[in-house]
Amino acid sequence: MAELALAPRRPGAPGAAVWDTLRDEPGPDAVRCLGLYAKLAAGVTVVTALDAGGCQAGTTVSALTSLSARPALLLACLRGGSRTLAAVRARGVFAVSFLAEHQRAVAERFADPALPPAGRFTGVPVRQVLGLPVLSEALAWTVCLVEDVRRYGDHDLVVGRVRAVEVGDGRPLLWHDRAFRTLTCPPPEGG
Fold it and tell me: Which of 116, 120, 107, 99 is nearest to 172 (CA)?
């Protein structure tokens, strides 16, 4: 079955009134959209960086995806105004640690807005990779150079060019329906 694609319509073209109505309507409210987004299952990651003064910054992120294999690019969505986003912008580099299923407390720590940036790292094993903090017990990690940053709504899309990678064994921590989850199926062979 072919995909249905809506092409932009020129004013006065057949169907233009329907297209214009879709563009002019305000759409659903934020609460309804957040309910929709909650149905997406996502792996949980922690994005880390160093700010302009060299202090560590980090935040929990579930909106991260692969973008391209050649060149190796990934896309992270960071809340506008966050300290971590400011650090990513300041230095042009960041790391992403993919959390394992046993790291729920780490995810909660890095998502806690009451904790100062340095406090988020307290008690969390970290190692330096290419000068950036990477969570030692993560399922996998990558270090990226910032390729592009663009603002959309209340988040910024950060495109990172992958410069270093390590992948371990285990199962991921997931975020679905506003709660942390784990896989219930057995892990694949060798993983």
Answer: 99
Whether 145 contacts 91, CB under 8 Å: no
Quote the Cα angle for 153-67-121, to 5°. 70
Question: CA-CA distances (angstroms) from residue 42 to 45, 103, 153, 178, 179?
Answer: 9, 15, 20, 11, 11
* Gap between the Cα atoms of 53 and 44, Å rounded: 27
Residue 118 has a CB neighbour count (10 Å cut-off) of: 11
pTM for this predicted structure: 0.82
Give all strands of the β-sheet with 45-50 in edge-to-edge order: 56-61, 45-50, 93-98, 140-152, 155-167, 73-79, 64-68
Q: CA 68 to CA 182: how far, in whole Å? A: 26
Segment 59-86 mean pLDDT = 95
- The confidence score (pLDDT) of residue 190 equals 61
Query: What torsion do the CA atoms of 108, 110, 114, 115 make, to the nearest 10 degrees?
Result: 120
Cα gap 153→80, rounded to integer Å: 8
